[in-house]
UniProtKB/TrEMBL annotation:
Coiled coil: none annotated. One of its GO terms (molecular function) is symporter activity. The lineage of its organism: Bacteria, Pseudomonadati, Bacteroidota, Bacteroidia, Bacteroidales. InterPro entries: Na/ntran_symport (IPR000175), SNS_sf (IPR037272), YocR/YhdH-like (IPR047218). One of its GO terms (cellular component) is membrane. This is Transporter. Keywords: Membrane, Symport, Transmembrane, Transmembrane helix, Transport. Belongs to the sodium:neurotransmitter symporter (SNF) (TC 2.A.22) family. It is found in: Membrane. The chain crosses the membrane at residues 7-27, 39-63, 84-104, 142-162, 174-191, 211-238, 259-278, 298-324, 344-365, 385-402, 423-444. It comes from Candidatus Cryptobacteroides excrementipullorum. It is a multi-pass membrane protein.
Amino acid sequence: MQRENFGNRFGVLVAMAGSAIGLGNLWRFPYMVGEYGGAAFIFVYIVFFFLLCLPILISEVIIGRKSQTNAFGAFGKLAPGSPWRWVGALMVLTPVIVVSYYSVIGGWSVEYFIKACMMDFSAGHASEAEFGNMFGEFITSVWTPIICHTAYLLLTALIVVAGVKSGIERFGKIMMPLLFVIVIVIAARSATLPGSREGLEWLFKPDFSKIDASVCAAALGQGFFSLSAGFGIMLTYASYISKKENIAASSAYTAVSDLIFAIIASCAIMPAVFAFGLDPEEGPGLVFETLPYIFSMMPLGGLIAVLFFMALIVAALTSSISLYEVGVAYLMEEKHMSRKKASVLIFVVAWALGILCSLSFGPLSGMKLFGNTLFNFFDKLSANWLMPLGALLIVIFVGWRMGRADVRDEFTNGGTLKANCRVFGVIYFLIRFVAPLAILVVFISNLVM
Ligand code: PHE
């Protein structure tokens, strides 16, 4: 079977950046910054991001491009007959779990986008507590969240069915630039509100005394999540990158755009939170409870709300298509299914799991797995355990199993990319020693905390 490839460098970048930039940037990063002390968290985040997360991403990309196959097949191909193939299986399964609960939040964004269009967040509509109640009632209800989850997952499936080039790449090329424009517009609005200065200072003036072990662990975990590293995702996308591309450059551009986007997203949210005297440590409810209230209070807020929830949907979609594609690529290549059939199968599994996750906020909230509702269990299992575990196995594979010459060859396109040759030693050192150690520390801190 002829494998599809991305069309050109920009196509590769929008697909990879599209996967990286998602709810993690617009929803998770700002509330983590809020919870873990503002600028100090951002500082630690940036250091870890380049020192650890980027080498992990590069490792994953090396495996994908070298093997030119899906996440399961890749390990089998590069380490034939070894137990590494089970690592590949883990990397196919995890994204299927994640897409099911990611799609539930994607569904919430769809509902909030519709609410915004119906002017529910226009001037003086409700108090902060009422917005909180509105969100609470929505997620605990049965049907609306399930319908939204279904619609969202269907949208994801449709883009994936269209294929790598005409679905994933084309969608990204249109949507990613749009996404940046929208978030910059919102940030400009937010930063010019009276009283927003305090918020900007809080974001950019670090208080280093706030840095402790929990800040470090949270920053590293958020870095993995935000870069979509440690799953078979970037590996699968990298398998569609042509042998002529510079994968170090693509990875670095992806990381830089992901970081810039997260910071702009915080600039869009935090100054407004301060301008209205709200609590920056609100946590996961920030986007769905605090923000609607802010929109209802600010001039032009109704319009900004529509733009914001549209951005949330677009950002989430470009990530969920990457999650979805991992399973599809596996079924197509290992089980010889057509793209359509593979997409339907993944849809059914993710849809059913997603329904259970959605119900775990309401009728199924009493059903606990290790003390967590199903949604929280999936979230914790993937972000705190499977992702670091996947990341650890990936760096061990590239650093200790593949062999230096092969890794170097892939990283430098057979020695032809001079700049890559120059930085290779440093990157290889980070991959072999620094990244595995740091991931182990995160693991242990997750165990203890
Ligand atoms: N990186 C995506 C984000 O920031 C989320 C994601 C995580 C996507 C894991 C795929 C896998 O939202």
